[in-house]
């Protein structure tokens, strides 16, 4: 396999799932060689830089020309801040990946929900390209399977209106806010990539703020 023709491109966002962990990490590709690539040190959901010991294995997932692709990799080297990086070596062939593991960012964002002719504002507590978890004290009367439209204003001229369905609507306690789980449906490749790019940038912002 030659990564230069079959692998991700420079600046692409990729997932890395280490064998020692089930949590997907997200990173940006910095350099691509024949069987090795360097990525900006992947961050976890909290925005923390992950620097594993060299020699560990994992799985690299990226968006190919027509679908998701995956390949096994080994961590060759890691570089600590400033400029943290991983150097990865591909240890096997590529294969189609059926589903990307969703990387989430903890957020606190106002979200507009359009339900038939009614509009409600809720607060998003976490966000991924798979969906979001929200909280509200409004009595929405939503049930599982209800279709909604999610309006996201993510700044920098990034405004998305995405179809979704309710997968959870419950009150954890009698006086607690409504806990609302939404799953995006029919997300376009373009919207998924833009949303994923924003989530990666948000994780980096959170990491910088905590430093």
Distance between the termini: 39 Å
Largest sheet: 6 strands, antiparallel, barrel
In terms of DSSP E residues, the strand content is over 45%
Low-confidence stretches: none
How many domains? The number is 2
Mean pLDDT: 86
Number of strands: 13
Structural commentary:
With 211 residues, the chain is mainly beta. The protein folds into two domains: 94 residues, Pnp Oxidase, Chain A; 106 residues, Thrombin, subunit H (Beta Barrel), CATH 2.40.10.220. Helix content is 12%, strand content 47%. It has two helices and 13 strands; from the N terminus they run αβββββββββββββα. The model has no long low-confidence stretch (mean pLDDT 86).
Characteristics:
13 strands, 6-stranded antiparallel barrel, elongated, single chain, 12% helix, 211 residues, 2 domains, Pnp Oxidase, Chain A, Thrombin, subunit H, mainly beta
Fold topology:
Elements: H1 3-6, E1 13-18, E2 25-32, E3 36-40, E4 57-63, E5 68-79, E6 85-90, E7 95-96, E8 105-115, E9 118-127, E10 131-136, E11 147-153, E12 159-170, E13 178-184, H2 189-210
Antiparallel strand pairs: 1-2, 1-4, 2-3, 3-6, 4-5, 5-6, 5-7, 8-9, 8-11, 9-10, 10-13, 11-12, 12-13
Quick structural gist:
By secondary structure, the chain is mostly beta strands. The chain has helices at residues 3-6, 189-210, and strands at 13-18, 25-32, 36-40, 57-63, 68-79, 85-90, 95-96, 105-115, 118-127, 131-136, 147-153, 159-170, 178-184. The strands form two sheets. The protein has a six-stranded antiparallel barrel. Strands 8-9-10-13-12-11 form a six-stranded antiparallel beta barrel.
């Amino acid at each position: 396999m030659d990564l230069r023709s079959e692998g991700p491109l420079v600046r692409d966002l990729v997932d890395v799932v280490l064998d020692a962990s089930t949590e997907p990490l997200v990173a940006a590709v910095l350099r691509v060689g024949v069987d090795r690539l360097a990525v900006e040190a992947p961050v976890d959901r909290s925005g923390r830089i992950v620097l594993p010991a060299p020699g560990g294995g994992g799985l690299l997932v990226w968006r190919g020309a027509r679908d998701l692709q995956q390949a096994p990799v080994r961590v060759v080297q890691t570089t600590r801040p400033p400029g943290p990086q991983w150097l990865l070596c591909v240890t096997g062939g590529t294969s189609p990946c059926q589903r990307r593991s969703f990387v989430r960012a903890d957020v606190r964002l106002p979200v507009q929900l359009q339900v038939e002719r009614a509009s409600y504002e809720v607060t998003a507590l976490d966000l991924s390209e798979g969906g979001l978890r929200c909280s509200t004290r409004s009595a929405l009367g939503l049930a599982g399977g209800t279709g909604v439209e999610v309006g996201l204003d993510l700044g920098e001229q990034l405004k998305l209106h995405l179809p979704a369905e309710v997968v959870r609507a419950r009150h954890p306690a009698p006086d607690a806010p409504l806990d609302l789980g939404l799953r995006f449906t029919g997300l376009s490749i373009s919207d998924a990539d833009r949303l994923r790019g924003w989530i990666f940038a948000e994780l980096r912002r959170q990491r910088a703020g905590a430093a």
